[in-house]
Each structure stands twice: as structure tokens, then as C-alpha cells.
Fold:
Amino acid sequence: MSTSPDPRIAEYGTTRIPYRVVRRKRGTLSIEVLPDGTVRAVAPLDTPEHEIRRRLEGRGAWILRQQRELAALPPPLPARRYVSGETHRYLGRQHRLRVLTGEGEGVRVTRGELLVTVRAPGRAEQVLNAWLRAQAGAVLSERMTRCLEQAAPFGIRHDGTFHLRAMRTRWGSCTRAGRLTFNPLLVQAPRDCIDYVLLHELCHTAEFGHSAAYYALLGRLLPDWKARRARLNRLVELTA
Structure:
């Protein structure tokens, strides 16, 4: 993997868009707008510079829109300390954290609280995150069953298997072979937002890429997908 040392410049109308290039052993070129608003092109090793710039300029409207949306977001939350009194979101609701000391470690949800029992101080983060990841697997499996039933009349078929992986800028991904990967942070979101992400990626199994045909399919399957996406990005902060 190699990264360009200095920002390149793409032009969209009268707007100059600085970007960096990361080259990897891969077959496709992707364009990313990172949380700080910077633009990165992840390209195959042999992609010419002029082709990367052409693709950036072709996505100029999308890039500027993403940067405006990121600029409008509230500032990042302070670093978590995993101590009693903090609030953590689970399935769309804020829960107050209460850290207890005991023999058996685990997490229990009760009356708007996440009760985290640890054997020793300093283990609350590890115990809570392990529980959230396990819950993500269970909740997403349940939602996947429902989403597959919803998607079936639109010709979408999948065996429902998926993987969990922490991702800094993405809620989910789908390969050309139909391998689905989801961010475990999704378990913090409301169920309707989780369904949006699952259906978004399931649509890629029928229409790979973000073509007009893809968005037409997503729109038929989930007419309010834009509202769900906005709510998801407002409620849950992507971190990794």
C-alpha cells in the first residue's frame, strides 16, 4: 500500500477539491470523504493519475454534499471513560451506565440503565464492548431475517450470513460475491435504521455499485431510505 505525500487537486466547476491517493492491491477504485472532510481515493496500483482525477471530478457534487453534511454535524463526543453516569446508546435509546463490582462479569439492561458488572476496576470498557458486539450479532441476525422477507418480492436472494467488523467510515459493505459485512456499532441505532443498512447492502447483491438502477431498486424497496439514513447518522457516531 502507498499513499500520496501531497494532496492532489480535482476541479468541480470553480471549486478545487484537494484529495490524497492510497494505492492498494485491489480491482476497483473507491472515493471516500472522511469524517474530517478530507477526500481520499483508494485505487488499484496501476490506475493512471488522470483516471483517478477524472473519477473525482465526476463525483464532485457528491463530494461537496458529503462535506457540507459533515460540517453541519455536532462536534465529536468527548472520549468515553466508561464510568457510572455516562450515557451509552442501545437500539436507539440512551441508557445511563452503572458500573458494579462482582464475581460474574456481564451487562444487564434495566429501566434505562446499562448495569455493567466487572471483577476489577478498569474492565468496564472491555466488558461492555464485548456485550455490545454479541448483541449486534443477535440483533442483526433477527433483523436480517425480516429484511430478507421484505426484499424477496423484489427478486433479492441471499442466505443471510454476514460478518461484523469495526469500520471508521462505513455502516456496511457488500462484495461482488455477495459477502456482507456490518459495523457492530449498528446495535446502537433504532431498528428501522438497522433495517435501512441491511436493505441497502442487500440491494447491492442485485445491483452492485451505486447506479441509477441501484437507487431505483432501493427506492422501491424502502421509499423513506433517505430519512432513515439521516436519522442513523444523527443518532450514532461512527468510530473505530
